[in-house]
Amino acid sequence: MSDLNKSSLTNIVNLIKKKKISSLEVTNHFIKNIENSRKLNSFITTCFEEAIKKAKEFDKKKNFNGLLAGVPLAVKDLFCTKNVKTTAGSKILQNFIPTYESSVTQNLWSEGAILLGKLNCDEFAMGSSNETSYFGNSINPIGKNLVPGGSSGGSASALAANLTPATIGTDTGGSIRQPASFTGTVGLKPTYGLCSRWGIVAFASSLDQAGPMTKNVEDCALLLEAMSGYDKKDSTSINKKKENYKSNLNTNIKGLKIGIPKEYRVENMPKEIDKLWKHGVNILKKSGAEIIDITLPHTKYALPTYYIVAPAEASSNLARYDGVKYGYRSKKGKNLIEMYENTRGEGFGDEVKRRVLIGTYVLSSGYYDAYYLKAQKVRSLIKNDFDKSFKTVDAILTPSTPSSAFKVGEKTNDPISMYLNDIFTVPVNLAGLPAISIPAGQDEKGYPLGLQLISKALDEQKILNIALQMEKVISFKQSINRWWE
Amino acid sequence: MVGIKMEKNKFDYIIKTENNLWEVVIGLEVHAQVISESKLFSGSPTKFGAKPNTQVSLVDSAFPGMLPVINEYCIKQAIKTGLGLSAKINLLSIFDRKNYFYADLPAGYQISQYKNPIVGEGIVTLDMPYGTKKIGIERLHLEQDAGKSIHDLSPENTFVDLNRSGVALMEIVSKPDLRSPQEVNAYVKKLRTIMRYLGTCDGNMQEGSLRADVNVSVRKIGDKNFGTRCEIKNVNSIKFMELAIESEARRQVELLESGKTLEQETRLFDTKKNETRSMRSKEEAHDYRYFPDPDLLPLKIEQKFIDEIKKNLPELPDEKKERFIKKFKLTPYEANVLVSEIDISNYFEEVIKNADIKLAKNWIMVELFAVLNKKNINIKNSPVSSKDLSSLINTISSGEISGKIAKSVFEIMVETGKDPGKIIKEKGLKQQSDPKEIEKLIIKVLQNNSEKVSEYKSGKEKLYGFFIGEIMKASSGKANPKLVNDILKIKLKK
């Protein structure tokens, strides 16, 4: 059984399809892992009984079609799952049970996957360390007191600790790539519109995008293939044919042009990250790619722009949590206004409140032009920077994060330093582009570090190919001693 | 109040005070519910009067992760309406979120259009007693309706019905071109007529399909600048709009005449007290924090799409009026009346297919309208079908019955729904047109009134009418009046 811990998603699918192992055996294996790993607090909800029932049903089938045949998967608790509690990491939705299934998770189940449970995350995906979750912070299996990153922290933690063979997260400003980088796993944020947002608890609608989090690049291609696709229920969904990312994987990257943006060499960045970046450059060179220095001049405005646009949208998206229709309602209050105030005051955590306040402020009359409108203009400039670069390069290589995983509590009192974690990932969301983070090495403490590959819109295949070649050369080894068991 | 009286003359609506003449400036924001099977951003049905919360989807009730998808039919309806207002259709428009908290607004924002509406400037032509007047349309935009809060079912609780939540509305904003309650009356009616012709809004004010926010300000005659305006929210009948404007204008004039300044504010019209009262001041006004809805892409419309709609546009009231005047030789007044509702004009055109136009218009506008008014029904439910009215008119034209007899036949038609031929036959009302019989009748009447005949012959010609009356009476009104006239003249000469 310990083989399963080393198995990739692709392997497990193959084993099940060849009937070398049953869906039930796989499901039980991961259930056991989860039960032994409560300390990591990576799950908010588990649905073992239902998973076992579905696995048994699956094993009775004659044909195991589907990309994810019989594979149990846990997903971030931001995806609405039919009849399974969906909290978004918030008290305000702590007892919310949707009557509907998000399009992306439905795609997984349609491909044969089985829901294991719902993974911890920052409240409404607002955070970079999983510490804003109402259900407590999830722990990084790399080390006892380390955060797994965020907001898809529970997802990264569960994946790295082998509590799920793969998982999906959402990425609004780096929420897939940063935790992937912190846990030595692979995470991809697709082109905005590639995966449907229907049924995902919204944080910032123009930035949110679901994506795969996996142990390797091949799994990432497989899971992306399974979860993506046009959805007429999401008006921002891109209407295009589904791609076969996995079967089109190709490590031949000769002649590809890779851009290195000088603006990503930020102050106070640890030397190891710079070293790792150079290492990545060398790998690409040796693999036959051409390295080109590029400039993305508006990069420095990305973070402030993001922290106007995202909270603005969030302040409006979160207005629906008012205690009237569903979710938490405060018992205090003499009238409607007081009910609102108490419900939202008690139901939301500090980070959510902070962002709702910022968002409300930047949209207010008299401030709208100076903040929101200006931010939208800068956003187009940032996008233009990328568009220009992609006229000459196929992909851009950057570090995924400016640091490795930090300690629990280290940054909770300093929101700005927390926000700075997303400095390399946020521009990609603002531009709506795809980007992948792959583990590229460790720092001196032995904590993993990731590199990020960015491409133009809908060029996921290209960055998957480059990532696969880099993965082959780097042959990153995860060293987790399962200290919590 | 002393010194202030409203004066309504033919051309202007002026408030006269001791020292000043005041003019009223009015602009309207009309909210018209789009005729559509489903809501603006969800597939829920829009049926009126359904049981509470039965026409509600997850989108309408703003469940987590739900997304709006635009209903193309509503876009078509808005474009159609825009074309009906001779307005510019914007090829690019944007849906914005208007943010505010209320129990019947599930998402905490209303999706509306703010800076970039689907329809731009247009024109509505009014026919006033003093001639035509053109009222500018500032814009038309699409937005969602909110749900309904019901406060009077329980002392402790407010109930929320989300059936209306998400229903498509067109907000049609006029320029401040209206100058009197009468013009407002004509404007709303004209808008309603246009939308009914187009089938884009049923204009049913009782059901709330058409309601308006009324902006009122006053200024001294001759002033170029507008005064401070007050907005009277959500007035749901034309009568109330007129009353609200009158009382609000009077209030403003009184305030200004007494040297006070007017605050820009939102007011409500109290229909029982016939006065407006303050709802919220400018300072208390909501900050709606409009911003483009990131769940919806900007709406791009192709010119081809608009052209296609334009091609299939029905004849509009103004065009129809022109046609009626030219083709049927109607007066502008008559044409106006007959095109005021599409059902009336259809009825009229049905009747004149086989009947005399002049008789038809008179019968419809006098006799039929009187019946419809009395019974308070619309022409679609008329007890007399266009076909039967047409036959009735033909019996008059052919001389089968007189106009007078026709009126009693018509009364029976209204009561029984029978066709006129049958009634005439059953009641023996057919006109007496045999000259010999009429001659006999006349001779008899003249014999019975020989004294009067002598008086007539000696010059008292006024008695001619008397003889006619007696003859008609003797024939129970059935004698052909023309023949009676012709023969009587001959007999009296002898």
List keywords for this structure.
heterodimer, A: 485 residues, Amidase signature (AS) enzymes, 11-stranded mixed β-sheet, globular, B: alpha+beta, Arc Repressor Mutant, subunit A, 3-stranded antiparallel β-sheet, 15 helices, 38% helix
Can you offer a commentary on this structure?
- The complex is a heterodimer of chains A (485) and B (494).
- Chain A has 16 helices and eleven strands.
- Chain A has an eleven-stranded mixed beta sheet with strand order 1-3-2-4-6-5-10-11-9-7-8, with helices on both faces.
- Chain A has one domain (1-485): Alpha-Beta Complex (Amidase signature (AS) enzymes), CATH 3.90.1300.
- Chain A has helices at residues 2-6, 9-17, 23-35, 48-60, 103-110, 153-160, 177-183, 217-227, 271-286, 302-317, 336-347, 350-363, 369-389, 415-419, 426-431, 460-474, and strands spanning 43-46, 72-76, 114-119, 167-170, 186-189, 210-214, 257-261, 290-294, 395-399, 435-442, 448-455.
- By secondary structure, chain A is an alpha/beta fold.
- Chain B is of the alpha+beta class.
- Chain B folds into three domains: 5-307, no CATH class; 315-427, no CATH class; 435-493, Arc Repressor Mutant, subunit A.
- Chain B has 15 helices and 17 strands.
- In chain B, the strands form four sheets. In chain B, strands 1, 2, 3, 7, 8, 11, 12, 13, 14 and 15 form a ten-stranded mixed beta sheet that branches.
- In chain B, α2 (181-198) runs antiparallel to α3 (238-257).
- Chain B is elongated, with a radius of gyration of 30 Å.
- The mean pLDDT of chain B is 92.
- Chains A and B meet through α10 and α11 of A and loops of B.
